[in-house]
Amino acid sequence: MSAPSVAKTPKLYLGGAFVRSESGRVYPLGLVNVPRASRKDLREAVRAARAAVPGWSHRTAYTRGQVLYRVAEMLEGRRVEFIAALGGGRASGREVDRTLDALVYYAGLADKLAQLGGSVNAVAGPYFTFTVPEPVGVVALVAPEAPALFGLLTHVAAALSGGNAVVALVSERRPLPGLLAGELLATGDVPQGVVALLSGLRTELVPQIGSHRDIDAVDSAGCPPELRRELERLAADRVKRIVPASADGTSPGHRLALATCELKTIWHPVGV
Amino acid sequence: MPTRPQTISARPERAAGQVPTADPQGTAAPESPGFVYAPAPEATDHVRLRDRYALFIGGRFEDPADGRHRLTINPATEEPLAEVAEAGPADITRAVAAAQRAFLSWSRLAGARRARYLFRLARLVQERTRELAVVESLDGGKPIREARDVDLPLVAQHLFYHAGWADKLELAFPGAAPRPLGVCGQVIPWNFPLLMLAWKVAPALAAGNTVVLKPAETTPLTAMLFAEICQQAGLPDGVVNLVTGGPEAGARLVGEPGLAKVAFTGSTQVGQEIQRTLAGSGTRLTLELGGKAAHVIFDDAPLDQAVEGVVDGIYFNQGHVCCAGSRLLVQESIAEPFLARLTERIRRLRVGDPLDKNTDVGAINSRAQLERITTLVASGVEEGAQLFQAPCQLPTRGFWFPPSLFTEVAPSHRIAREEIFGPVLAVLTFRTAQEAVERANNTRYGLSAGVWTTKGSRILWMADRMRAGVVWANTYNRFDPAAAFGGFRESGFGREGGPAGLAAYVTLK
Hints:
Strand order of the largest sheet of chain B: 14-15-16-13-12-17-18
Number of strands of chain B: 20
Number of strands of chain A: 12
CATH superfamily of chain A: Aldehyde Dehydrogenase, Chain A, domain 1
CATH superfamily of the largest domain in chain B: Aldehyde Dehydrogenase, Chain A, domain 1
Mean pLDDT of chain B: 94
Strand content of chain B: 15-25%
CATH architecture of the largest domain in chain B: 3-Layer(aba) Sandwich
CATH class of chain A: Alpha Beta
Distance between the termini of chain B: 65 Å
Largest sheet of chain B: 7 strands, mixed
Number of helices of chain A: 10
Shape of chain B: globular
Helix content of chain A: 40-55%
Helix content of chain B: 25-40%
CATH topology of the largest domain in chain B: Aldehyde Dehydrogenase, Chain A, domain 1
Strand order of the largest sheet of chain A: 9-8-7-10-11
Oligomer: heterodimer
Low-confidence stretches of chain A: none
Radius of gyration of chain A: 19 Å
Order of helices and strands of chain A: EEEEHHHHHEEEHEHEHEHEHE
Strand content of chain A: 15-25%
CATH architecture of chain A: 3-Layer(aba) Sandwich
Number of domains of chain A: 1
Number of domains of chain B: 2
Structural class of chain A: alpha/beta
Structural class of chain B: alpha/beta
CATH class of the largest domain in chain B: Alpha Beta
Mean pLDDT of chain A: 96
């Protein structure tokens, strides 16, 4: 009889560390005990994300692109493991391929965003005026339930390419690929706190995202329809931006990255 | 000084709309006797106001179903200008239906044809610009100089700029097949009545949408003149619908089920209510809300220009400006001389008759707003800040507040945190650039910011770190349809102006 395998305990990725929920709670998924993140875990994640924003948003766009490319390299090196985590088979292989494509896409997008979203403005006066995209700050992501890995990392990479920090709820029904992705981020040079990955119950955590006082924007891609109204209603308290779920599902594109950016217009007189 | 002869030509039977006849401008400071200002009244004999204005629905003026009207007054005299229809639920539903019908053909019209209409609107506004400026000043209390030189030129420019986009949407959104959204419900404030209308209507129409717009209850008149201009331009019926009324009408409009998009400019509180109303509905929303902008003056700033910038930043339009530079942050080393120059300048501001071409600061827009300003200023005194007010004689009738400035302000004071929306400046100091950024960003808002310094690298460093949608460096309160305008944080979301403003009115593939 062979030795029992060493199974990995699923953990949250929070503040750059792999931890269980401070609440000690789990929810069962087959034979696996998935951490059930609490409101306090969410608060900790947002606190770490807020602290990480100045540093990450002021990395050059080139550096952010290289970090995202490094995450893709990490995934390429562990594709077998991720295919298994996704359930194995050809569909899982295709999902890993698509995820790699998305990561590489956003790695290459980071230093194009200012040119795609910004402008020099021909104003009617002696002023030099330009508009630039800037990260909105802390983005809370309700990742799509499926595809569990591609959906999560596409939206995370989109927000990171613009310089945001992200607190993400991974898929509730298929949380393991998303939690495992924390290891790609941790080894892929994403600075501590820039991304948090939380598993848990959406009915519990989505309203808490809506009412949290220090979240700037919510990417609601995977928000269950029955929670959307409450999420958006609560978000009004801080005038949070809501990134709507796209009509055609998750597809990488520059507009997804710009959806978590603000535009800033700067004016200066021209004269001698 | 002589009493000013004043008529509104089409209504000789009534003297309503008359501006103050007493001299309201005994504002020259006692210690500056050098200048004596003769009255310089703007002519009003070319202005034709009706006694009563109906709703503008489906290209026609229609009385409200329940026959209610409200009086709009001149805030400088408290005298009535005209009666304006109060839209009820049935009227608003009818207006949305008219806009829906118009959308079917307007959205299919070639962009170049839509552009023709917008260009016409721009030209008609230019032709009637002085009349519109006078009415804007009469109805809202703003100095004619500002209505004439700022509001109206920008109104025409916004229409002209967006006219040019109508047949170029594919260039603005390459490969994304931009399509209009449908009927847009738009609610605008009273501080720049016609300009806000232009900001809302021009991009919506250019992109192929139709609109139902509610002007502010205290300043509906220029919108009603714009309705006449729509008729003059031959704009197809129902493309622009105007429903006048108070907050209930606004709440009713944004809750209408037939809307594809809502755009609102106004207070953060109302904006939040709208966001809650629309939660989960899928209706597109942009909000341009309050502000508490930091205006940062470094010790190397060109002081005379900075003083003018600060004055323009807070006293422009009586401070009824969402992006007003209401928190002055002066570097400690120059605080004393800078404030000496600033208060000297404030003493020379001319407060009074909005229709006098020499007036710098006009009337407060309404009694309610005057009460809000008075309450907040009283709180500043109560919390221990030092109040300086320009020594000016205010007219006895109408709503007035002197240009005011607070020193000894703590960041926790209400006057440093809350939007006053009046001619009241709170002065704080800082030592380092880092501290200036922290203080500037210590607010729930993020609409605008200003910075004055001669050091280029510091301008860009500050502009990068101040969390605001617009940063004016060595200038303040500049606006242009080509330059995106809009807020961070609780100042709202979405932009107006430029391609980003257009994006709020299209759906993309």
